[in-house]
Q: What sequence folds into this?
């Protein structure tokens, strides 16, 4: 049995508005992405996941889809996408699209028909409910963006469900015609040659059929964001969602080695269910976001990693993520020095890692002036730190005007140090963050134990996290100092003949007989 391509692969997320502008409007596009694909191939990644590119009113920047089988004119055309896909494949890169199945835009023709009348054939393609007795929303569900998860439609006298903005009505996956139409969307893009999908908010897709109130969250505190007032017991993670995922998987498998990744924010034991079973497999990779919120502490990380590894089903392949378009960047959370250590962790754990664009430069969250805020999350609940604009700012390619991203002012401001923190500068600088990523990716590709080998814990204390990757006779030791002080630990017997191969610092620390002393903020790979 051959190993699926993603087992040894590294994914790279592109936020299309912010990657490269080709037409001078300050917004990235498909032709821009295509121009930069050789740079991603040079970096050493294997696949590119592109956030939504479909026609959209942009109420939530593409996650409100008005046509699932087209390309928004801001990004280009279907022909531009086909050219991008062909260029990627020519370079040996896979391409994944972002499938948004929980909701559409309220401008989608399906919803326009659905809201036209109660007896419209597509009425049941969305979730409609009568008002509660005495009036008001049908239950206490809260939108992830704050406020009730229901919007009243005066023309038909019912509420429709929206887990996010009111401009994003929820699709009714219990309706067989809607379900069939959405499965045809997958086929449309697979027929064009895409290599897989990241499935947006997969765990949200199916709701409890009786729509009971969600229980109050006993841990809610002011300032947390209104969505946390309740526990999403009945509005998410329903048993029937696994049947939907299994059908998606069957379609993907029918096209050969196609990858499905599910966006799922759930505790590990519930996350594992999305792998499915031998008889009814689910998505190949339920996204594992634990590193985003984990305490940056060696003992805590060791416990987390081992628990995740032990929880995996027998044929479940792990995956790891440090950041994405919704969450603070790694360099903001950890600082510049520890962001290098975090990169080494991400790219040496067992499983498929995803790099968020710009993290290979050490980009940080950008402060957005109030008059330039665009994210509806921040606009609806300002000042709580929930806004996503700071992590979606343009990529910096060089030190020319607008960082080589555009000839116009970008839609969001650049990071303050873009003239030195850019791809061209870091490509030329020994020891830069970009070069560290390229070296890590090269070593991973050349070392079977790092690409697909087993993971074994070695050591964890107040400072050092050490673990082994092993395949056959090949053994590799990772030693990461998660602090700003020097730290020492005793090498296991088998590792005492290993030599330092790659580190996060300019000079590699060398073992001293039975011990290894790591400098502050040092990560080291020994082979």
A:
């Amino acid at each position: 049995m051959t190993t699926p391509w993603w087992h040894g692969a590294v994914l790279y997320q592109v936020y299309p508005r912010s990657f490269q502008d080709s037409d001078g409007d300050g917004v990235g596009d498909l032709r821009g992405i295509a121009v930069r694909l050789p740079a991603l191939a040079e970096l050493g990644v294997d696949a590119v996941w592109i956030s939504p590119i479909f026609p959209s009113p942009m109420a939530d920047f593409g996650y409100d889809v008005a046509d699932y089988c087209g390309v928004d004119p801001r990004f280009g055309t279907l022909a531009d996408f086909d050219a991008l896909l062909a260029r990627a494949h020519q370079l040996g890169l896979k391409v994944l699209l972002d499938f948004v199945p929980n909701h559409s835009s309220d401008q989608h023709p399906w919803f326009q028909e659905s809201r036209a009348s109660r007896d419209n054939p597509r009425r049941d393609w969305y979730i409609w409910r009568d008002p509660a007795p005495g009036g008001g929303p049908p239950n206490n569900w809260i939108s992830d963006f704050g406020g009730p998860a229901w919007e009243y439609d005066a023309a038909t006298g019912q509420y429709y469900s929206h887990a996010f903005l009111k401009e994003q009505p929820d699709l009714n996956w219990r309706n067989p015609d809607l379900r069939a139409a959405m499965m045809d969307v997958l086929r449309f893009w697979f027929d064009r040659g895409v290599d897989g999908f990241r499935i947006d908010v997969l765990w949200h897709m199916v709701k409890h059929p009786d729509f009971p109130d969600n229980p109050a969250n006993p841990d809610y505190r002011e300032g947390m964001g209104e969505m946390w007032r309740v526990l999403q017991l009945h509005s998410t993670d329903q048993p029937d969602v696994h049947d939907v995922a299994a059908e998606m998987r069957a379609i993907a498998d029918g096209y050969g080695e196609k990858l499905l990744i599910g966006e799922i924010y759930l505790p590990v034991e519930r996350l594992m269910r999305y792998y499915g079973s031998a008889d009814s497999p689910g998505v190949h990779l339920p996204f594992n976001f634990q590193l985003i919120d984990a305490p940056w502490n060696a003992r805590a990380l060791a416990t987390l990693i081992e628990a995740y590894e032990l929880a995996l089903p027998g044929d479940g392949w792990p995956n790891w993520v440090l950041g994405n378009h919704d969450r603070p960047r790694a360099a903001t959370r950890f600082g510049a020095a520890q962001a290098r250590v975090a990169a080494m962790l991400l790219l040496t754990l067992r499983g498929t890692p995803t790099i968020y664009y710009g993290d290979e430069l050490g980009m940080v969250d950008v402060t957005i002036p109030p008059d330039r805020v665009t994210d509806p999350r921040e606009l609806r609940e300002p000042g709580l730190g929930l806004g996503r604009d700071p992590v979606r700012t343009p990529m910096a390619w060089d030190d020319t005007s607008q960082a080589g991203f555009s000839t116009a002012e970008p839609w969001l401001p650049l990071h303050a140090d873009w003239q030195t923190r850019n791809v061209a500068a870091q490509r030329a600088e020994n020891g830069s963050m970009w070069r560290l990523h390229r070296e890590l990716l090269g070593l991973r590709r050349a070392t079977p134990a790092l690409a697909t080998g087993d993971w074994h814990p070695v050591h964890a204390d107040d400072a050092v996290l050490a673990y082994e990757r092993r395949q056959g006779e090949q053994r590799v030791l990772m030693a990461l100092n998660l602090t700003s002080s020097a730290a020492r630990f005793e090498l296991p017997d088998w590792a005492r003949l290993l030599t330092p191969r790659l580190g996060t610092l300019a000079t590699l620390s060398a073992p001293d007989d039975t011990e290894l002393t790591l400098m502050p903020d040092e990560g080291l790979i020994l082979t």
The radius of gyration is 23 Å.
